[in-house]
């Protein structure tokens, strides 16, 4: 026993300084935690969650999306100016040509396609084609030297943009704006378009109504140059209402804001640094706001008697924090859907495919579909083997 103790004693003697250091470190960390995380919260009336809380209902939405400087900054003014309706209208014709070209590339020689993958690729390429042309520095130099004629694209608009002091955007501001635009127009548009094709595959009534509207628009283009313009997009009222209703039932995005200073809502304190999470379904599926919320009813939109109160329909945010790219996304989605529906039908290869969230809602298996070109229509020989197929 004495021999065993003689062996153990030096071990404990050696370990005592180490244990002391570990203990002091733990006490310091605990003290720091209480000083910076716990003590500032003492005396505050916190919401019944430890890591923030969802703000439910119209009042919560208004609190988050109003001009509240306690929840971070609003959208950059430069982005809003470039993407406002009167600015984006002039891109419709060019966007239509790019959409058509990209769809032809994706569908050439195919009788089936995975919709989610296709939509991600098409929306990304459409946005990048509109944004990027010549490298920015080269184009800026050519414009300044008068060697390049003014172009109808987004980069040129950013290069020509001036603030109140007649200063152009800095390189970092331009990069931030372009990245914001690509993200906004890519993910959201791809999600909504995938879900639209999924819904139209199973809803014959809505499908036929969208087809009829798009066919009527095509008739007005006969004998002309065939290029779509903003006035044609404005005629796609029912098609857009279908998209709006789909985004009500299955909101494409959610998000959060970080409080930049202490604030309060609904009698609760929200400390600086907390994340405030918002979701759309709280109001989108509220029967007090939308009658029979489980029912897919595009007539909710455009009907004054069914219009929702402000800050209750929020697939693109609302108020000062509304997504500035909503009109860009609207045009992109309407043009892509138009070219698909006037040229073909489609059927789901996996009926009743589930929706998964990663974190945005997508058909779990990517929505594989079979294409059925319309009778007497061979869309630029995209699918030669199916051009003689009867509907």
Automatic annotation (TrEMBL):
Pfam families: p450
Keyword Transferase: no
A GO term, aspect molecular function: heme binding
Superkingdom of the organism of origin: Eukaryota
GO biological process, one term: secondary metabolite biosynthetic process
Alphabetical keyword list: Heme, Iron, Membrane, Metal-binding, Monooxygenase, Oxidoreductase, Transmembrane, Transmembrane helix
Residues that, per the record, bind heme: 323
Regions crossing the membrane: 14-36
Cofactor(s) needed for function: heme
PROSITE patterns associated with the record: CYTOCHROME_P450
Signal peptide per UniProt: none
UniProt cross-references to InterPro entries, sorted A to Z: Cyt_P450, Cyt_P450_CS, Cyt_P450_E_grp-I, Cyt_P450_sf
Family the UniProt entry places it in: Belongs to the cytochrome P450 family.
PANTHER family the record matches: CYTOCHROME P450 26, CYTOCHROME P450 FAMILY PROTEIN
Name listed for the protein in its UniProt record: Cytochrome P450
Taxonomic source organism: Coptis chinensis
